[in-house]
Design goal:
Layout lengths: L10 H36 L3 H29 L1 H20 L4 H29 L3 H30 L11 H12 L16 H23 L5 H23 L13 H31 L4 H25 L5 H19 L8 H28 L6 H41 L4 H14 L1 H5 L7 H37 L12 H12 L2 H9 L17
Helix pairs in contact: 1-2, 1-4, 1-5, 1-6, 1-9, 1-10, 2-3, 2-4, 2-7, 2-13, 3-4, 3-6, 4-5, 4-13, 5-10, 5-12, 7-8, 7-13, 9-12, 9-13, 9-16, 10-12, 11-12, 11-16, 12-13, 13-14, 13-16, 17-18
Length: about 550
Amino acid sequence: MNVTTTANAPQERRAATLVMACVGVFVAYLPVTTVSASLPAIQRALDTSTSQLSWVSVAFVLPMAALILTAGVFGDVHGRKKVFQAGLGLSGLGALVALCAQSIEVVWAGQALTGLGSAALLPTTLALISHVVPDPRERGKFIGLWATSLTAALALGPLIAGVILDHVAWRWIYLLPIPASLLAMACAAKLPADSRAPGARRLDWPGQITAALAITALVYGIIEGGVASFTDAKVMVALATAAVSAVAFVLVERRSSSPMLDLTLFRSPAFTATTLIAMISFLGLIGFFFALSLYFGMVQQLSTLESGRRLLMVSMMPLLLGAPVGRLVHRVSPRVLIPGGLLVSAGALLSLTTIDTDTSFGSLAWRLALLGLGMAFVITPMTATAVSSVPRHQAGMAAAGNNAFRQVGAALGPAILGALLSTKAVDALPGHLTDAGLTQATVRHVTAVADTGGLSAVGGTDFGADAPRVLGAVSEAFVDGLRLCLFVSAVLALLAAVVGVLLLRRPQHPAPPATVGDSAANGRHAAGNPAATCRAAAQPQGPGAPVLQGNHQEG
């Protein structure tokens, strides 16, 4: 059993822990949309291709996806507060590296360090909440606040980037996370209640290595396959490596005495559903943010601040509704909330497929707000259901697993949708160039540039008097690719909704059987907590009686 070593936190310590958990997830997710909104500026400043630009986002989410489960085990063994502080430090260090970057490769390195920090922050923030709020019904409300902090970071990121880029260079978007991380580290030294699970788990290096290799090889193969060809030798090797590593991960975890991810969790249909929904929905959502940011910058030529205001329409609804939806989790079945939200999101994405190069903000606003409304009814119930769909002593691993698969989707989103966008746009470009009245010689020249360096290379090439018509054709081709991405995102949302309808049920789990360790833990808990003593006395005693849960740690 996963037994905490600390006594129940007093009320004021609980409030401080909850605040720090919300600050931690805010720091973890701030780079997602801050950097996404700045991609056009980074592309212009560093003269990068679309595939290189994809790696800016992927370099952040890959470490999150690959290491989030191991970070949770570190917290169990060494203390969640230490891992929380380490995550803040890595986030600040990564921002500092990217701030000083003079090349796209150094930006990747900074993003990767920031992703490592976020991998440490995500499981520990949920673990800290689980430790101080043991009641599952009450916990849903606080997970709603946690999700609100997450969406606040997504909402404010583009606006912060826009204000900065209106005055200084792109690199200064990385300045704010540095003092924020340092200040949070200082506060975290005293405020949150610490917890750990001594002896309950140990590091699973074979599982970690095979998981990281599978995720990295898969994302690399998809990105490079979109740039070159999926029949290219290095792409086929990468995808084969991903498949072999995934099989090896399953075999390793089945035989491990302390698995990184206990595969028996997938015996719960609700956990399986929320895990698949997390991966599928974030694949579409993060890929959508990536593609739409490029549309605002490359096609509509908007400033980063103007782009941020438009992206805010998506994030605003989850931000406003996160806490109220958290209170609904135990009143309305997740089988209603989650598929319903996904259907609304799919409808919004399908409505966006009619956009053009000059679509007005008014025409976009209601569709983006509708997408945000749908996601508001997915994010909080998805996390709360994953935690409550398994026996309590496995809730921490369930939360970490759900987050891991969510980040796998976030890593695959820019890779898959970026590859679709580039392929479709380059294929459609010759037709738009011909429709613009350009000569066949010019069409061949522009197409050759696009085949070699992508659409961004066309924008950086001097075509003389033909430049306006060439750029107009490039914009039209880009919109063709964007429409394909929106359609694919809508199909993914519909697929996730079907998964929810088929598999989601309101979880019902009996209390795990009592052990000597449990009784001792319960005694210590009751001794320091008069209310718990009264509850314990009221419990029926006997072999079949329910057991006071005490301090079983589910983080």
